[in-house]
Design goal:
Blueprint (H helix, E strand, L loop, with lengths): L6 H14 L3 E4 L9 E4 L9 H13 L5 E5 L2 H4 L3 H6 L2 E3 L2 H9 L3 E4 L3 H5 L16 H9 L3 E7 L6 E4 L2 H6 L2 H4 L7 E4 L3 E4 L1 H4 L10 E4 L11 H20 L8
Parallel strand pairs: 1-10, 2-5, 2-6, 3-4, 3-5
Antiparallel strand pairs: 6-10, 7-8, 8-9
Length: 253
Amino acid sequence: MTDQAPAAFVNAISTYLRHFHRHEMRIDSPLPETPSLLVANHGFGGIVDLNALALSATLQRLNPNREVTFLVHQLAWTLGLGHLVESMGGRRGSAESVNEAFAAGRHVAVFPGGDVDASKATRDRNRIRFAGRSGFARTAIEHAVPVVPVVTAGAGESLYVFSDGQRLARALRLPQLLRVKALPVSLSAPWGLSIGIAGMLPYAPMPTKLVTAVLEPMQAEPGESAADFAARIEHAMQARLDLLTSDRIPVLG
């Protein structure tokens, strides 16, 4: 169960995913008995993402008794949604949140790609984009914890995204003002054609099938840099996502 997230809420998520999105789990290896860093890919959306829900449901099945702290972008608190995020087990993405979680014996879940990975255009829905970020790998090395990659496929077909809007975000100086690098142009319910809205607020996803794969734990090699370790993790996740989507027919919803 996620850190302080009500069991009834997690059960409701699992039921919703199982019936509406036909959520399927493929487990390569059980989670480590010790605290670990769970590294996942985004589907679509910053505050509410089907991949985050899928990860929560998967963790409930794998290890329901160990709490998990989800690291969340500062934007949630900027938009006044911090209390909601915290009630679901989310914490600000910071060194303090990581230190507190590991000290308490919890797993930590992170989506390194941030808004760049969460705002991909539909044509890029099956690409993992960590945008050169390696802080998560450095965290794993510094805390000497294993990294468990978790990949979910399907969320990119729950709406249509024309563009990730990175140029527009730069033009509006959003990286400086809100630490937001993307402003996706999308078509979704109930927002219709919108710029940024479906990426920041919940949308009604179409009933796309979701498949989550939990990969075997990974450790940094002796002397391996954080950048190299991060690249190796991203490569492993992309390879698995390619397998999950190799026979998938690209039909919206």
